[in-house]
Amino acid sequence: MLWFQINPITSENMRWSYNHPEAAQYAGNVPEVDRFDAQFFKVHYRLANNMDFMARKILELTYEAIYDAG
């Protein structure tokens, strides 16, 4: 199944349990974050492990857009 076909908003695997009525009871999880190819993007593996997951996705999608554009 492709990563964009999965609903990332769930109430499972929350870091903390919230009992406050104004706190969000759901969280978004980005699937396949652990599959980042640090060597391809010339990022040190220690930096890649500590890198923000959105920065990794932006690198991947930017490369994909440029590759598709020709």
UniProtKB/TrEMBL annotation:
Domain named Beta-ketoacyl synthase-like N-terminal: which ranges?
Answer: 6-70
For this UniProt entry, the molecular function terms from Gene Ontology, in alphabetical order, are: acyltransferase activity
Q: Gene3D superfamilies attached here?
A: 3.40.47.10
Q: Which domain of life is it from?
A: Eukaryota
Signal sequence extent: none
Q: What is this protein called?
A: Beta-ketoacyl synthase-like N-terminal domain-containing protein
Q: Which organism is it from?
A: Operophtera brumata
